[in-house]
Write a structure and sequence with these properties.
By secondary structure, the chain is an alpha/beta fold. It contains 11 helices and 7 strands.
């Protein structure tokens, strides 16, 4: 029973109403159970009627509903042939459901392998795992989404202080190895990015480590990145938006209190030229209040939350 995905037999519950049990335990356990003999055990029964009833019972109780054999829930028939027909129908349906579940588990295991490898920063193994997932029939978009989800977990752990910059960089490198395998297939698969994000440190500020980390995390969230580097004049952000395709977000970084005015100028220059462009800001001296004051659409205190906020801004 365990091999078939069954955690509990409906017969040991205090009710035989499986749909009601599913409402209470759905997503936690699987169900199996018997048939209503009065609906199939009559003189004019046919194999088609029996099969239809077995299928109906399974569909009512979800995809993980199994009746392995007659001794575990099926009726003892009064009319010749019903017992045998029921047994055959149960065997057929149970086998089909079992095979479907195993196929699903096998398919999901490949993607789960990729997710774990990205989250744990196993950059040497990710490319091979991604290729195995592709060979198993997984879609490019599904694999990419799995890696993005893993980086989301990494970002959350970073924001919570559970991991630090080195672990984050390692995970980002691992994801980049996986993306390298997917990139040649993305156009043909119909996969699309979140859009392009322009990023840079504002004029007068030469800090780039934090900006680079934010760039990696936003890229991991599904964006194409254009990094303008450091000491970027306000007008260069506008030029970059106009020169690149599908730009949906501009990220401005300022790490010094002395460059806060430059951050304000950058945001206001972008908004004046491109009123609908979303702008996110961040940096050690920046606060949510200051971000709102200078007209930015969003603020992020760290790289992990920057990726989350970036997606939020462009999908709102």
């Amino acid at each position: 029973m365990i091999e078939m995905g069954i955690d509990i037999w409906q017969g040991v519950m205090n009710t035989n109403n499986i749909p009601e049990l599913i409402k209470e335990y759905g997503g936690q356990i699987s169900f199996m159970g018997g048939l209503h003999s009065g609906e199939i055990d009559f003189p004019d029964w046919t194999p088609e009627i029996v099969m239809e009833h077995v299928e109906k019972a399974c569909k009512e109780c979800g995809k993980l509903y199994f009746i392995p054999n007659l001794s575990q829930g099926a009726p003892i028939s009064s009319f010749p042939g019903v017992y045998e027909a029921t047994s055959e129908a149960i065997d057929k349906m149970s086998t089909e459901l079992f095979q479907q579940q195993k196929k699903k588990e096998k398919k999901m295991s490949k993607i789960e392998d990729v997710k774990v490898l990205v989250e744990t920063g196993k950059s040497k193994k990710v490319a091979a795992a991604v290729q195995e997932a592709l060979d198993a029939g997984d879609k490019v978009a599904d694999i990419l989404e799995a890696m993005i989800a893993s980086m989301g977990v990494v970002g959350d752990k970073f924001s919570a202080g559970e991991i630090f910059v080195p672990e984050m960089l390692i995970a980002a490198k691992a994801m980049s190895k996986g993306v390298e395998v997917l990139k040649p297939l993305m156009a043909g698969d119909g996969s699309s990015s979140m859009g392009t994000c322009i990023i840079g440190t504002v004029a007068g500020d030469l800090h780039d480590i934090g900006k680079n980390l934010v760039s990696m995390m936003i890229e991991s969230a599904g964006f194409d990145m254009v990094d303008l580097g450091v000491d970027v004049p306000a007008e260069n952000f506008v030029t970059a938006v106009k020169e690149n395709e599908h730009v949906v977000l501009v990220a401005c970084s300022g790490l010094l209190t002395t460059t806060m005015p430059a951050l304000k100028e950058a945001v206001q220059t972008i908004k004046a030229a491109l009123p609908d462009m979303k702008v996110i800001v961040g940096g050690a001296p920046v606060t949510p209040e200051y971000a709102a004051e200078i007209g930015a659409d969003g603020y992020a205190p760290d790289a992990g939350s920057a990726a989350v906020k970036a997606k939020e801004l462009v999908t709102a």
